[in-house]
Amino acid sequence: MSEAVVAHNRLIAPGYYRMGLQWKSPGVTPGQFIMLRVSADSLDPLLRRPFGVYDVLRGAKGIEILYRVVGRGTKIMSTLRPGDMADIFGPLGNGFPAVKDPGRAVMVAGGMGIAPFYMLAKDILKRGENAALFYGARGRTDAAIATDFRKLKGLKVEVATEDGSMGEKGLVTDIFGKKAVWLAGEASVVYACGPSGMLKEVARISKKNGLRCFVSLERAMACGIGVCLGCAVRTGKTAGKGTDRKKYGMVCSDGPVFPGEDIEWESL
Amino acid sequence: MKKTKESTLAVDIAGIKLKNPVMTASGTFGYGSEFMPYTDLEKLGGIVVKGLSLKPRQGNPSPRIVETPCGMLNAIGLQNVGVEAFISEKLPKLKGVDTAVVANIFGETIDEYMEVAKRLDASDGVSGIEINISCPNVKKGGIVFGTDPGEAAKVVGAVKKSTRLPVITKLSPNVTDIKLMAKAVEDAGTDAVSLINTITGMVVDIEKRRPVLATSTGGLSGPAIRPIAVRMVWQVSQAVRVPVIGMGGIMTAKDALEFIIAGASAVQVGTANFVDPNIAVKVAEGIAEYVERHGTTVKELVGSLTTG
Ligand SMILES: Cc1cc2nc3c(=O)[nH]c(=O)nc-3n(C[C@H](O)[C@H](O)[C@H](O)COP(=O)(O)OP(=O)(O)OC[C@H]3O[C@@H](n4cnc5c(N)ncnc54)[C@H](O)[C@@H]3O)c2cc1C
Ligand SMILES: Cc1cc2nc3c(=O)[nH]c(=O)nc-3n(C[C@H](O)[C@H](O)[C@H](O)COP(=O)(O)O)c2cc1C
Ligand code: FES
Fold first, then answer.
1. Among A91, A147, B131, B168, which residue's Cβ finds the most Cβ atoms within 10 Å?
2. Residue A204 host element (H or E)
């Protein structure tokens, strides 16, 4: 809906790009997302693609997104060059809630789910609060996208890779699980983003240990503003009576961030 | 000057006065007010709101949508707030907005259709009713009315008895001969027809060997269906005397003009609203530009197609 200009579109690891977009954006809350039309007037792909805001450009002159090429839309995006026009809609969604005086803010990210945490981590550190990132990736090349997080002063970063080529071998939920009791002692708050199986496990571990947990979900989207009712997730709060009276939340407008205990994970 | 401009674009659909022939399609524009931050509703001929039922409906399990070449499939399951909440919470937000508001309705029984129509009749701020007899998404009802001329006629007759508002019947393309359906609802007293609703389709996830949509099938919309929609509008406009409203894949003024020239008195923009929430206004502006360039009026353009 609003015109943006591509400032940069850098390959940062095989298949991963960071795109800067000069854009008169209204203020962005960490965890919010934008929808990008991958090519103007294109009928195929027709729908906009959602991307979390990775960072705000210096002087609030725009935003940056971190994306992985997975299909046709992101492939086309990877061919955009500085100076090209881009069509952005947003920022959309609720973003991560700021929790008052957390003992520590713990971010748990799986794969591309790391994208919205850069802004969040910077915000938390700026407030002088403690922050930690648990990051899980398939291997060394994917884990390379966490490099910038290591440069954030005061952020504790722990990595797990499935093939063991970097950090601990295993899943991010393993390293998070091992620290959960200790984190609970600190009255930490947990923010998680990644594949739904991972989020479900983070929510379970958090609940078991009495940790407050917020998850950022992903669903196929069309409108991004809560009108097509396409991006529904079952939030488990029953409204009314009868078996088909389960309430659905819209990931785009009620989310993408939800309290972990609100999600009916079996439905995802 | 302004006056002549308005009259070259204005159309009247069975008493529903539209300042231009562009409306937004049901299910793609929420209850209207959601779009206020993104577009000027007063530049639209009208708004058709999300399908309303007697009771609120929660809709289908997820995934509900999937993109397809030049289009998308949806199986929302007619999730809506219900007619009462629409009247008390949504409709007041459109008060004072100078555009026609059409309420799209559906039911699982003829009584439900009648009841929803009655409540809307008693409300303030609705210019007309569009009956959805054609939603392919819901297992119970819907499909039955829209594909059987006898059942469709019964619904239309019943709704007509329940309201003084102009009644538009929205036709399903999932039939062998859409002219038959159009004639059946015309005979039953509909004041206008609109078409097309979505075309039933399916996408398979080959890794999981499962349908992508939780309900297996869904309704196809977007530019992919436009030529089918234009053909059906052309056929129906020749078969009935009541005004025809055309829709299906409209993205631009050119697309809309195809429908108008083929026989539509007005058009609705649907899926395109998801791509650009201001697109319907752009379509209206493009039509105005065309009308001016050709020194004509929308009314003259309707059905001006030459064949053979
Ligand atoms: C709120 C939100 C924030 C997101 N943030 C980011 C981000 O910061 N960085 C990033 O790289 N990606 C992000 N995504 C995912 C991104 O939108 C998809 O990767 C993108 O739409 C794929 O487009 P495509 O045309 O390349 O792929 P397609 O050709 O459409 O699909 C290729 C593959 O990707 C899958 N896919 C398509 N759409 C999605 C989707 N919305 N979510 C998950 N899988 C999908 C398909 O099932 C298919 O397997 C986000 C998604 C959401 C909903
Ligand atoms: C997400 C979605 C929801 C829809 N919901 C309704 C509805 O509630 N009632 C109805 O009559 N039509 C509904 N439709 C159909 C549209 O109003 C329209 O007939 C159809 O999408 C074709 O137009 P388009 O290609 O411009 O979208 C819906 C379409 C979509 C894409
Ligand atoms: S994407 Fe349309 S409601 Fe969420």
1. B131
2. helix A196-208
Of the pLDDT bands very low, low, confident and very high (cuts 50, 70, 90), residue A35 is very high
The CATH number of the domain holding residue B187 is 3.20.20.70
- Indicate which atom in ligand 3 lies nearest the CA of residue A250: 4
A180-194, pLDDT tens digit by residue? 888 778 878 999 999
Query: What's the average model confidence in pLDDT over B147-169?
Result: 94
CA–centroid distance, residue A219 to ligand 3 (Å) = 9
| Nearest neighbour of A45 by CB, restricted to B56, B67, B273 | B67
Diameter of chain B by CA atoms?
A: 62
Considering the domain boundaries, does residue B308 fall inside one? no
Alpha helix positions (H), chain B: 2-9, 83-85, 110-121, 143-147, 149-162, 178-187, 226-239, 253-262, 272-275, 279-293, 298-301
Helix or strand holding residue B105 (H, E): strand B100-105
- Phi and psi dihedrals of A198, rounded to 5? -65, -45
- Ligand 2, residue B80: give the atom nearest the CA: 8
Per the DSSP assignment, residues forming a β-bridge with A250 are A232
Inter-chain CB proximity B56 and A48 less than 8 Å = no
Residue of A nearest to B66 (CA): A220
Q: Is the CB of A73 under 6 A from ligand 1?
A: yes
* Average pLDDT of every residue of chain A: 90
The pTM for the full model equals: 0.94
Is the ipTM higher than 0.90? The answer is yes
